[in-house]
């Protein structure tokens, strides 16, 4: 019997037009009525998923969200942090110097300053628009080395970012969790932070066993949680490496893939 379902947002829960289908809403609600905890697992800050949390009525005292790719596990109603695995200002300064060398843009999510960047760009604007948050363009040298930085992102045109990735110092992969969450976004998290760790921390908080967990995703930043879960599910539109890691492949995000998994493995079997 599955007790916890963690669902990625873009390319998984959301259709191409960024909406949630009625069938998927019903499946999620029916699972929650059976006592299953359903959480959104996203690279976004909690502000970036607030309208979807409202749409799914996920603001009760029993609801959680995995934000910043699992770096934060939060109660949705109070934003209280159940678990936090963050970077520091010194990491931002270090990665900024590397981004300058590679010729790519960079921004970060700071606990103190919000979305912060030394230079605004197209994809920082996109990040702000997706999450409905403001951009703080500033001299980042004022950020102290010990300040909390939740995650850092190199952002740019797909070909520019791809070329930069090929030139990244190998030490970065030892120092950080590095995930490409979209063609334009390369994310750097604390080495011990990823969606898999986030799901594991929440499962332990809830007293749920690994084999009682379902995770669903489509992109590289979903790999850790798909590998962790008792049932790791890849969307029909998922990256090949995600499909290879999954226990099960469902339909695409535009064809109710999430709903079909919940119906098959929870509603028909519990």
UniProtKB/TrEMBL annotation:
Annotated InterPro entries: Cof (IPR000150), HAD-like_sf (IPR036412), HAD-SF_hydro_IIB (IPR006379), HAD_sf (IPR023214)
Coiled-coil spans in chain: none
Domain of life of the organism encoding this protein: Bacteria
UniProt KW keywords: Hydrolase
Record-listed E.C. numbers: 3.1.3.23
Gene Ontology terms: cellular component: cytosol
Pfam (any one): Hydrolase_3
GO terms for MF: magnesium ion binding; sugar-phosphatase activity
Entry keyword annotation includes Hydrolase: yes
Record Gene3D superfamilies: 3.30.1240.10, HAD superfamily/HAD-like
Positions of transmembrane segments: none
NCBIfam families referenced in this protein's UniProt entry, alphabetically: Cof-subfamily (TIGR00099), HAD-SF-IIB (TIGR01484), PRK10513.1 (NF007806)
UniProt name for this protein: Sugar-phosphatase
């Amino acid at each position: 019997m599955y007790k916890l379902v963690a669902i990625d947002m873009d390319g998984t829960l959301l259709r191409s037009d960024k909406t949630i289908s009625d069938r998927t809403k019903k499946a999620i609600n029916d699972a929650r009525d059976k006592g299953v905890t359903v959480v959104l697992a996203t690279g976004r800050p909690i502000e970036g998923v607030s309208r979807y949390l409202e749409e799914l009525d996920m603001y009760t005292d029993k609801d959680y969200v995995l934000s910043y790719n699992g770096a934060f596990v939060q109660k949705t109603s109070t934003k209280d942090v159940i678990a936090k695995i963050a970077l520091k200002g010194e990491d931002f300064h270090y990665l900024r110097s590397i981004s300058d060398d590679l010729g790519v843009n960079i921004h970060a999510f700071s606990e103190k300053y919000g979305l912060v960047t030394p230079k605004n760009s197209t994809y920082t604007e996109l990040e702000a628009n997706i999450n409905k948050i403001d951009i703080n363009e500033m001299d980042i040298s004022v950020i102290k080395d010990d300040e909390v930085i939740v995650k850092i992102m190199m952002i740019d045109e797909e070909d520019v970012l791809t070329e930069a990735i090929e030139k990244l110092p190998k030490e970065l992969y030892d120092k950080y969790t590095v995930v490409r969450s979209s063609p334009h976004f390369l994310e750097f998290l604390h080495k011990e932070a990823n969606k898999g760790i986030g799901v594991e921390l929440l499962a332990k908080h809830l007293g749920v066993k690994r084999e009682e967990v379902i995770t669903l995703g489509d992109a590289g930043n979903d790999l850790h949680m798909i590998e962790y879960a008792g049932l790791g599910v890849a969307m029909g539109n998922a990256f090949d490496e995600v499909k290879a890691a999954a226990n099960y492949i469902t339909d695409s995000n535009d064809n109710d893939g999430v709903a079909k998994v919940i119906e098959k493995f929870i509603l028909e079997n519990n």
